[in-house]
Amino acid sequence: MAEAQNIPVGSTTAGSIAVAAESTVVSRMSAPPSFDVADFPVPHGREEEWRFTPLERLRGLHDGTAVAGGSIKADFSAPDGVTVETVGRDDARLGRAGKPVDRIAAQAYSSFEEATIVTVPKETVLTEPVRLTLHGEGGVTYGHTVFELGAFAEATVVIDHTGDTVRAANVEYVLGDGAKLTVVTIVDWADTAVHVAQQSALIGRDASFKHVVVTFGGDLVRIHPRVEYAGPGGEAELFGLYFTDAGQHHEHRLLVTHNTPHCKSNVVYKGALQGDNAHAVWIGDVLIEAAAEGTDTYEMNRNLVLTDGARVDSVPNLEIETGEIVGAGHASATGRFDDEQLFYLMARGIPEHEARRLVVRGFFAELVQQIGVADIEERLLTKIETELEASVA
């Protein structure tokens, strides 16, 4: 599987499996960030940030016709010392990590009834994860959740999405100086669900943020992680794993803005696709502003196409406004099974379907190990096995 670095505009990989190209980070946004829906035009699919998204499958989230009326069950499990609050839209803590950057995110902010703020006090080190399970029970739902860590606090957060809904939501992560936060977001909706979410992180001085997105379910899923730094020395790791089946559209759009000196970021997303009209989109944007001297950043997307009829669009972009950096780079690669790997395994008596399973497990192993929550890791490996069995059946 060959990798392409610093890919020229319009470059295309073998066949019609994938397209990799560059465009400036600024051109991705049709309007400045805002809480007001009216500040964003209704998208028509020709805009840079919407050109890969099948708007007709958003069920009205993009044009204001999706009226809240559905139901979603939220279950929280939090260790002692963690505060969970329900607040109104006027709470000053909302929006600290970033304003909505597109019309659906603004619609979500304008439509939720109550927001949830989860606070881990300063210097608190949690030994068990904070768990939030959202189970859709039909209809249109909107939401807003904030996770805030005080200085030198440490926590792991697991957000699990199941059931069926048409949902738009904003999630914020605010890390105090020296804090450490790991977030695992699992998107395992029913096949008819629609999920669009902006997930924004503000990383304090010398703080560490690990963000893992795992996407299996849903008819259409569009996740938009965003990272900014509130002080020097911050580190961000963004990992993603997606398994896209026939007819599904999984889109992950990332933006890391290096706006302060001496910060780091590392992005690794991997996906497997199978079935007719399976479509995965990965947009990886990194902006290094003029003030961000000493930045060290790298991003990579790799995709494994298991059957004919699947399509990947992979678009890495790196925009640098200062020459005083430690390092910066990106890579994008898409391909089918490596025939040599399969031959090696089959030559040792391993049946073809078992050889394919081993290759896929090995492909994802690096990311599964990043989760650090044993029961979640086991669940994901089981889910991958189930997906592979379906492809053989």
TrEMBL record:
What residue stretches are annotated with the SUF system FeS cluster assembly SufBD core domain?
136-363
Q: Name one Pfam family in it.
A: SUFBD_core
State the InterPro entries in the record.
Fe-S_cluster_assembly_SufBD (IPR055346), SUF_FeS_clus_asmbl_SufBD_core (IPR000825), SUF_FeS_clus_asmbl_SufBD_sf (IPR037284), SUF_FeS_clus_asmbl_SufD (IPR011542)
Q: Which NCBIfam families match?
A: sufD (TIGR01981)
Q: Which family does the record assign?
A: Belongs to the iron-sulfur cluster assembly SufBD family.
Q: What is this protein called?
A: Fe-S cluster assembly protein SufD
Lineage, top ranks? Bacteria, Bacillati, Actinomycetota, Actinomycetes, Kitasatosporales
